[in-house]
Amino acid sequence: MAFQQGLSGLNSSSKALDVAGNNIANASTVGFKSSATHFADVYGASLQGGGGSQIGIGATLGAVAQQYTQGNITTTNNPLDIAINGSGFFGMSLNGATSYTRNGQFHLDKDGYIVNDQSRSLLGVMADSTGSIPQTPPTDQLKVDFVTGTPAATTDASITANLDSRKSAPTVSPFTTANPDSYTSSTAMTVYDSLGNPHTLSYYFVKSSTANQWDLYTGLDGAALTAATSTPSLLTFSASGVLTSAATLAKSFTVTTGASALNFDINVSDMTQFGSGFAVNDLSQNGFAPGNLAGVSVSDDGIVQASYDNGQVRDIGQVALFNFRNPNGLAAIGNNQWTETGDSGQPTPGNPNTGIFGVLQASAVEESNVDLTAELVNLIVQQRNYQASAQSIKTQDAILQTLVNIR
Q: Which residue segments constitute the domains of the chain, with CATH numbers given?
């Protein structure tokens, strides 16, 4: 039996060395999970049953178990590198087949899909047309649009400014845009037509000789305005400088770009008239031109946002995480990917940073969890075990040789 015992010891140590060597080789592999060898002793079956005189016949490999402990997180310069801090796996799709990984090194392919180096698409839930993310099964392949698509015409605008109450009515009358002395203050902002063309909306404020009243003239694209050809909006303020007239002004302009006429409301509810200089605090509107993708970001709860060079920011979707009752039952298929098996159980999907699922960190990756020092020590231990098993075979061989030499 010593030959069989020694041989099993050699096999066991050899497999342990293989596992340690694989761990060491992947010490720098992002998302890699180290493995540990589990061994079991072997006893020969006997019709007489067990007893105190049983002698084992060696060792066998019981299992190679992956260790799903957390790896260190390292920051990178790629906003689509995503690390999981906690439990869970990314879901990846390729030709309808789903796999799972802890390697969050992603990028955009030519079609805008978020993929890994093997062109597997990241799974999650895409946002709907309103930007809301429905609570549906995470079976969508997350995709980022390189352009914002259809432009939007301005339908609402807003101005927040203070008009200087110390000012007197202009010395030049009537109002005309050709003479700056005929108006008290002015500013401008950009609005968009239905084709996404930008237009300059100008505001001209004229202090009235009547206390606490101002005339507001608005023009588009530098059009010449006069008191005779334009109807101003009246802004009336209380003695404390708060607007008391209509808070919304309806405006309509015809454009020459082939787009529909611009019709929008201007919100002036936050306009004030205090004893300080003219100051514009905010100019905003809801229209935009088509824009190209400028950047992508991922929040700690998996929300993917795309920003465009026209100032638009859109929620694209949400990254999903998946968990298993028995992760050690997953089947490794290489490239840091695992697949579901009967032993692992079915995947449980969920949102990052909720319940049992970990938090995501963008511009970061999870390093291998290999303890290089421990693996190097394990190499020494398994080498000694291998030598000892070989020595037991050598000893048994010497004993047999002695028996053979008996005359």
A: 2-69+370-404 (no CATH), 73-149+292-366 (no CATH), 156-285 (2.60.98.20)
Nearest by Cα to 187 from 217, 232, 155: 217
**Residue tagged 């239905």 (tokens):** 194
> Which residues fall within 8 angstroms of residue 171, CB to CB, at 6 or more apart?
181
How far from 7 is each of 1, 2, 16, CA to CA, in Å?
Answer: 10, 8, 14
Residues 6+ apart with CB under 8 A from 357: 86, 87, 88, 321, 323, 350, 351
7 membership: H or E segment, kind and range = helix 2-25
The answer on pLDDT for 343 being more than 90 is: yes
d(CA 81, CA 102): 11
Distance CA 294, CA 313 (A): 10
Question: For residues 257 and 195, is the Cβ–Cβ distance under 8 A?
Answer: yes
Q: How far is CA 219 from CA 171, 188, 199, 270, 278, in A?
A: 22, 9, 10, 21, 20
Alpha-carbon gap, residue 375 to 145, rounded angstroms: 45
Total residues found in the chain within this entry: 407
Contact (Cβ atoms closer than 8 angstroms) between residue 388 and residue 109: no
Q: Confirm if 323 and 89 have CB atoms less than 8 A apart.
A: yes
More confident residue, 53 or 122: 122
Q: What is the pLDDT of residues 151-198, one digit of tens each?
A: 999 999 999 999 999 999 999 999 999 999 999 999 999 999 999 999
